[in-house]
Write a structure and sequence with these properties.
Elements: E1 4-6, H1 8-11, E2 36-37, E3 41-46, E4 51-61, E5 64-73, E6 83-86, E7 92-103, H2 117-163, H3 168-213, E8 220-230, E9 234-244, E10 247-257, E11 263-274, E12 280-288, H4 313-317, E13 319-320, E14 353-355, E15 360-362, E16 369-386, E17 395-401, E18 411-417, E19 420-427, E20 435-442, E21 446-459, E22 467-480, E23 490-497, E24 506-510, E25 521-522, E26 527-534, E27 539-551, E28 554-555
Parallel strand pairs: 1-7, 2-5, 3-12, 10-18, 13-28, 16-23
Antiparallel strand pairs: 3-4, 4-9, 5-8, 6-9, 7-8, 10-11, 11-16, 12-14, 12-15, 16-17, 17-20, 18-19, 21-22, 22-27, 23-26, 24-27, 25-26
Helix pairs in contact: 2-3
């Protein structure tokens, strides 16, 4: 599997072909090497940061041990990942396989015959600019000579006038001749400068266009050198696989809410990038979350020493507490925050594999290409929900079950409603058959305003049963802004948080008698839920009151 560098100029005439015969003719880059057999890319498995490329096809074999050259291939092929084998019953086997890389610098001068019109235009502009710069140098040199002549004439006039040898007619004639020589060259120099400015703008635009549609020809190319052993002459099916970098994929989704708000259609797509140097044309594309380069090693063991010590008097007397925010997660919940940039694949710890239903073509142009994978339509329940502590907007959230038959990886989702595209959100990881949520933007006919009040008091006797009571009063004003007569009522779900204590020295109690109205439910995580039905133009007020009671030994509140 060792890589070998090959220089075609040194042995282009003596390179043997696949059948052992000597090749003829000069080598013109990799394509000019004799005995090359083209093996098309038929399947690609795209992983998180690289791809496994599979080539397959029929090759001609000669009985005995021979050499088979497959190419051209991308020089980015990982040597150790190269695998080649024949189909069962072919009567042949691969003895050795390696990647041979060939350095072929681009020839200087004009572009080749197969160069595009845009590349030829860039070359012509560069030549024209070089010629214009040379002409400008000649004109500037001529003007420098004229300027020197003018300086000599001025010195002659000064010396002659000072010495009493005045000749005005001769001096006037020479000055006219100097000006006649300088005037056309100054005009020509101005024209050349304007022309160079225009050429610079045209060349810049042409280079930007060339960089957008084409890449520079590769100077380092490669082919596969296989040593095969065949029992008989004939043809056999050969399969070659290898890993290549510069390829990746990420999931993307499109969720469409039906007009009756009873179902959601979810389309699973994949954005695929690749700049491996080879185009993938009509290949079987498989998308995997595998990480073949992620080394697995046991953790380093270290001593974890536990020590006991007596608590100080101050530590026995006080209990330090603090408030912290904790995200409520369930199975398939939100993944940890990813760093800035392209997010990784969150697969839940298991390798997930998806397959494109149709052949896919992805050119090597380092641009994202969207590939359709699957789609499904599932019934849903839509809830107009609001968390006033986070946002005053009421959001339409659809709950549905993943019936696609595969997991839904975390990724961006395009949101579509009856009015069209309404925005882009994020779909969290959801297992097969798991219920998940999709938020379809805000309902502009509703608004929620939140006010909070906090009072602190002390109860009990000092040094006996003194306690600190922190009372929080949350007031919510919910409004429906439209006033269409005869419009039906709409239900809104409002959720507000109540702190949850984890220590016995701090108690949290909901004052149900002071709550107007009382919450419809209060779960173990402290989420109070209100279900309100509002007619057009209605206004509702919610008041939630709770006490946080702490013993005198508690500090931090």
């Amino acid at each position: 599997m060792d890589d070998t560098f090959h220089f075609p100029e040194a042995d282009a005439e003596a390179a043997p072909g696949a059948d052992g015969s000597a090749g003829s003719g000069a080598a013109d880059g990799l394509g000019g090497l004799p005995g090359l057999t083209a093996l098309p890319i038929t399947a690609v498995t795209c992983m998180e940061d690289r791809a496994q490329v599979e080539r397959a096809g029929s090759v001609a074999l000669t009985a005995g041990v021979g050499r088979l050259r497959i190419g051209p291939v991308t020089p980015l092929t990982a040597d150790r990942s190269l695998r080649a084998d024949f189909a069962a019953g072919a009567g042949a086997r691969v003895v050795d396989a390696r990647v041979v890389r060939t350095y072929t610098p681009a020839p200087p001068g004009e572009p080749g015959q197969d160069a595009s019109g845009l590349r030829r235009e860039v070359h012509e502009l560069e030549q024209e600019m070089a010629d214009a710069k040379l002409l400008r140098q000649r004109v500037e040199s001529a003007l420098a000579v004229v300027g020197q002549a003018r300086t000599d004439l001025h010195r002659d006039i000064v010396q002659g006038a000072g010495g009493g040898d005045a000749d005005p007619e001769r001096w006037a004639d020479r000055l006219d001749r100097v000006e006649q020589e300088a005037e056309p060259r100054i005009g020509e120099l101005h024209k050349l400068r304007r022309r160079l400015h225009d050429l610079d703008e045209e060349l810049r635009e042409a280079r930007e266009a060339l960089a957008a549609v084409e890449t520079e020809p590769q100077q380092l190319t490669a082919y596969l050198d296989l040593v095969v052993e065949a029992e008989r002459d004939g043809s056999a099916e050969l399969r070659v696989t290898g890993l290549v970098p510069c390829a990746l994929w990420r999931p993307a989704y499109r969720a469409t809410l039906a007009a009756d708000r009873r179902s959601v259609r979810v389309e699973t797509d994949a954005f695929v990038w690749q700049e491996t140097g080879e185009d993938w044309s009509a290949v079987r594309l498989t998308l995997s979350t595998a990480r073949p380069t992620l080394a697995a090693s046991p953790p380093v063991l270290a001593d974890d020493v536990l020590t006991l010590r007596e608590r100080s008097v101050e530590e026995r007397r006080t209990v330090e507490v603090n408030l912290r925010e904790e995200e409520i997660r369930t199975v398939g919940g939100a993944s940890p925050a990813a760093p800035a940039g392209l997010p990784g694949l969150h697969d839940g710890g298991d390798v997930r594999v998806l397959a494109a239903p149709h052949p896919v073509s992805v050119p090597s142009d380092h641009r994202p290409h969207r590939v359709h994978v699957t789609s499904f339509t599932a019934p849903c329940t839509v809830e107009n929900t609001c968390a006033p502590e986070l946002s005053p907007l009421v959001v339409a959230t659809a709950r549905l079950t993943n019936t696609s038959g595969h997991v839904l990886l975390a990724g961006p989702v395009d949101l579509v409603r009856g009015s069209g595209f309404v925005g882009r959100g994020r779909l969290e990881f959801a297992g097969a058959g798991e219920e998940f949520e999709v938020a379809f933007g805000s309902e502009d006919t509703f608004r929620v305003v939140r006010h909070t009040e906090e009072t602190r008091d002390t109860t009990g006797l000092a040094a006996i049963n003194q306690r600190t009571v922190l009372t929080r009063r949350v007031r919510l004003f919910v409004s429906r802004l439209d006033s269409r007569p005869g419009a039906p009522e709409h239900e809104i779900t409002v959720r507000e948080r109540v702190p949850v204590s984890e220590v016995s020295a701090v108690e949290v109690e909901l004052r149900t008698a002071d709550c107007r109205p009382q919450p419809d439910s209060l779960d173990a995580e402290g989420i109070a839920r209100y279900a309100l039905r509002l007619a057009p133009g209605d206004h509702r007020e919610i008041e939630l009151v709770y006490d946080i009671t702490a013993a005198s030994s508690v500090t931090g509140l």
